[in-house]
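PROTEIN DESIGN WORKSHEET
SECTION A - STRUCTURE
LENGTH: 300
TOKENS:
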């Protein structure tokens, strides 16, 4: 009888452990799918349950979801403590062996977060919110300084010059001119609010191309460029069209379609880490899941 009891106890422990791991897997899955509200609620529930006190995983995902949700002005207004709370959580993680292992195991996830926060900082700078900008700058310097930029991660390496695909589909002369000017600007550094060959941000780059090769003055923000553009379905996209991205809180990035060969899309854009560069958005786990849509300012 005692033997049977031990076996049942072992089975019960095994089942409990699996359930705990399942809960953590669900946090990761939902976060990867951009379900930040769901992650925030679930992480809080797990933190309130003493059964999960053995791990920092719920605390880690709570901090991630806070930083993503805070990019919504409405949410951040009601949770003004979120950035500081996340900062303190990450400091605690860095001070323990398990916490450091969690951070090491989620390097790519953190590199994506770093890119999102840099883009948010640009928007804060543009809108004159120096207080929140300073909070994020401290967070990046103190917490994510040793995390590689997403463009330097194996999953999202920019395309080397020798691997750039030249468009083989026939396109108009105006589209060819847009691509030619884009080529000339490869390597120009990223600069917040930049819109000249001395430095570009994402929407500054598209503004510059539109003015020089399309004879049009575009709105300065990526979200406004998307609203004003003529929407294009994926199957009708051509080089010279714009591709827009949503980080979960609205349109936050724009690039220029460079090639549509091989049933994929390469874009040229202003990357926060490497400046004007080319990336295959369907080969990039970062860009692929953030595509919001395509738009154009060209008539043919």
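SECTION B - SEQUENCE
RESIDUE ASSIGNMENT:
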């Amino acid at each position: 009888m005692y033997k049977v009891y031990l076996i049942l106890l072992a089975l019960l422990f095994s089942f409990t452990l699996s359930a705990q791991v399942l809960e953590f897997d669900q946090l990761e899955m939902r976060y990867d799918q951009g379900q930040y509200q769901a992650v925030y609620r679930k992480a809080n529930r797990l933190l309130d349950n003493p059964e999960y006190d053995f791990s920092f995983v719920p605390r880690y995902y709570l901090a991630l979801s806070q930083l993503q949700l805070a990019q919504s002005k409405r949410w951040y207004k009601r949770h003004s403590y979120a950035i500081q709370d996340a900062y303190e959580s990450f400091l605690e993680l860095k001070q323990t062996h398990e916490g450091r292992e969690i951070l090491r195991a989620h390097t790519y996830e953190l590199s994506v977060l770093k890119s999102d926060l840099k883009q948010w900082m640009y928007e804060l700078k543009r809108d004159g919110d120096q207080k929140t900008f300073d909070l994020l700058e401290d967070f990046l310097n103190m917490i994510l300084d040793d995390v590689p930029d997403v463009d330097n991660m194996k999953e999202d390496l920019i395309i080397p010059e020798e691997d750039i695909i030249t468009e083989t589909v026939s396109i108009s002369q105006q589209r060819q001119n847009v691509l030619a000017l884009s080529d000339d600007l490869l390597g120009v550094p990223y600069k917040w609010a930049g819109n000249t060959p001395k430095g570009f941000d994402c929407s500054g780059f598209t503004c510059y191309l539109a003015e020089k090769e399309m004879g049009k003055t575009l709105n300065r923000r990526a979200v406004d460029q998307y609203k004003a553009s003529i929407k294009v379905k994926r199957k009708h996209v051509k080089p010279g069209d714009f591709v827009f991205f949503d980080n979960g809180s609205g349109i936050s990035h724009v690039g220029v379609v460079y090639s549509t060969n091989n049933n994929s899309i390469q874009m040229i854009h202003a990357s926060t880490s490497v400046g004007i560069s080319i990336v295959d958005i369907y080969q990039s786990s970062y860009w692929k899941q953030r595509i919001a849509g395509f738009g154009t300012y060209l008539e043919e």
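SECTION C - NOTES
The CA atoms of residues 196 and 208 lie 7 Å apart.
The two ends are 82 Å apart (CA to CA).
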